[in-house]
Write a structure and sequence with these properties.
Elements lengths: L1 E4 L4 E4 L7 E10 L6 H19 L3 E9 L3 H10 L3 H18 L15 H13 L3 E4 L2 E4 L15 H6 L15 E6 L14 E3 L3 H11 L3 E7 L3 H16 L4 E7 L2 E3 L2 E2 L10 H7 L2 H9 L7 E2 L2 H27 L10 H19 L4 H20 L5 H21 L6 H11 L6 H16 L3 H13 L2 E6 L2 E6 L4
Parallel strand pairs: 3-4, 3-9, 9-10, 11-13
Antiparallel strand pairs: 1-2, 5-6, 6-7, 7-8, 11-12, 14-15
Helix pairs in contact: 2-3, 4-6, 6-7, 9-10, 10-12, 10-13, 11-12, 11-13, 12-13, 15-16
The structure holds one RNA strand.
Length: about 475
RNA sequence: GGCGGCGUACCCAAGUGGCUAAGGGAGAGGUCUGCAAAACCUCGAUUCACCGGUUCAAAUCCGGUCGCCGCCUCCA
């Protein structure tokens, strides 16, 4: 398996520290507001990485943190007039709700900054003792000039940065690039006792403390959004390696941004869409598919149109799945071979192709492409009207492979019925299943009498409400119109 | 200014030295159907922003030009 490593700028063979085991740390969110689709992308990308490594037989320990004390949380608490820890609690719960809907599983360990104050203080103390950090008025700063490799992850030179520094000048720092490890608290702010007086952790130290505690001083993979490379991950790496004297992380992985009108989606620009509002209009699987359709490092332009196309793609899957299940249930037992070579060939190479795609830096876009090739092939096969046990076995095998690979992506896991029920909600179809079935029955009667005008008017009526009818040999099936 | 990325059909998108440039959506024609829908078939980039170069061979490597974006400040 090869993974793109931000540190080296190349795809590298993935070799874990301990054979068969992988430790992953992904930066979660600061819980001060609702999550937007960009947060969803990051969560989904690393969820898929985790699932795929498990699929590949690795024993995975996945750690994802919550930043639950921070300036933003404090500001938000003041805005809302509630205690800071309630802000954190509220948005942590919201995170679980949103991500759960998107099929993101909780990590194996989900540490919070406030639960690791002791570990944080120990590291800060250690850094002062080793001469990497200094204290001023209850604040502790990391002295960047003491760490010659500073900038190695984000590929920047401290000289260039100083030249163009627009950093707010903090008189207490020896150098504008120095960053806070510990911040003295003002009255009324959250604070913990420390050797430097009451205070709270700085911006980056929590991730060092939590990752090292749960994964060890050197671990395999560290992930997050590309905007965390600098300064967050650079600083995290610096303080961690200064503290332990060991390499911190073997593979750094960063996902690309979601853009709107080509611009990065962000809180400050106000051009963001929350997960909640998108899920009012689209099924969660659509959102997940939309995000995995593009390689994780590329930017994705957000648009309703693209989401509708993703919806149409997933519908193609469920239409085929229904056809597959129908065939398995109803096909006659009389053996009729019908040119199964192409399908058999594809079945035998499919799993390998899927793995090759995913092994190549988690190329979910290509993997999904392979899935749709198999979908086309099984449709071709079914179009030839085969029957008998051998055909059923092949189709069954196709179904299993689609489910197996889909489940790695946490896609395609429902029944067609569940899919259409969800679409009915999301699209506000003003009909119940019972009403639809009643109209179908009425139409069947008309069809028996060859009253085509009436049959067609019922079809039209349902079509207007977003329900499509499909006449089959043994009855009429309905589904929700998509893509429109 | 420094560093990095991107530009592939109408739209999205994979492909980074060599078989027919994946896949999805939209469109046109066809098969099937009472009519439809779905599915399938055919059509659709002799071409990968542009210009040079390397090579037997380039969308893929090198140089340049144009355009777009990101990071350098909290940010997934």
């Amino acid at each position: 398996m090869r993974l793109y490593n931000t540190m080296t700028g190349k795809k590298e063979d993935f070799v874990p520290i301990q054979e068969g085991k992988v430790g992953i740390y992904a930066c979660g969110v600061t819980v001060y507001d609702n999550c937007h689709i960009g947060h969803a992308r990051s969560a989904i990308v690393f969820d898929v990485l985790r699932q795929y490594l498990k699929y590949r037989g690795f024993e995975v320990k996945f750690v994802k943190n919550f930043t639950d004390v921070d300036d933003k949380i404090i500001n938000r608490a003041n805005e809302l007039g509630i205690p800071w820890n309630e802000v954190a609690k509220k948005y942590t719960e919201k995170y679980y709700e949103d991500m759960g809907r998107l099929g993101v599983e909780p990590a194996d360990v989900e540490p919070k900054a406030t639960e690791h104050i002791k570990e944080i203080i120990d590291i800060v103390k250690g850094l002062i003792e080793k001469g990497y950090a200094y204290e001023v008025d209850g604040n502790v700063y990391f002295e960047v000039s003491k760490f010659p490799e500073y900038g190695k992850l984000s590929k920047r030179d401290t000289k260039d940065m100083q030249a163009g520094a627009r950093v707010e000048i903090d008189e207490r720092k020896r150098n504008p690039l120095d960053f806070a490890l510990w911040k003295a608290s003002k009255p009324g702010e959250p604070s913990w006792e420390s050797p430097w007086g009451p205070g709270r952790p700085g911006w980056h130290i929590e991730c060092s403390a939590m990752s090292m505690k749960h994964l060890g001083e050197t671990f395999d993979i560290h992930g997050g959004g590309a905007d965390l490379i600098f300064p967050h991950h650079e600083n995290e790496l610096t303080q961690s390696e200064a503290f332990t004297g060991k390499p911190f992380v073997r593979y750094w992985m960063h996902n690309g941004f979601i853009t709107v009108d080509k611009e990065k989606m962000s809180k400050s620009l106000g051009n963001f869409f929350t997960i909640e509002e998108i899920l009012d209009k689209f099924d969660p699987e659509v959102v997940r598919f939309f995000l995995l359709q593009t390689h994780y490092r590329s930017p994705i332009e957000f648009s309703d149109e693209q989401l509708r196309e993703a919806e149409a793609s997933i519908d193609r899957y469920y239409v085929t799945l229904r056809r597959i299940e129908d065939f398995i249930k109803k096909a006659p037992d009389t053996e009729k071979s019908a040119g199964s070579e192409a399908l058999e060939e594809m079945l035998s190479s499919f799993r390998t192709k899927f793995k090759e795609a995913m092994d190549d830096d988690l190329n979910t876009a290509l993997a999904i492409g392979h899935i749709f090739e198999l979908i086309r092939e099984v449709n071709r096969f079914l179009d030839r009207r085969p029957s008998g046990q051998k055909a059923k076995t092949l189709v069954e095998e196709t179904k299993n492979l689609l489910k197996e690979t889909g489940s790695v992506l946490r896609l395609f896991g429902r029944t067609p019925e569940q899919w259409y029920r969800s679409l009915m909600k999301v699209k506000n179809i003003g009909l119940t299943e019972e009403e639809i079935l009643a109209l179908i029955n009425e139409r069947q009667e008309a069809r028996k009498q060859k009253d085509w005008a009436k049959a067609d008017s019922i079809r039209e009526e349902l079509d207007k409400k977003g329900i499509i009818l499909e006449d089959k040999k043994d009855g009429t099936e309905w589904r929700v119109k998509v893509g429109g």
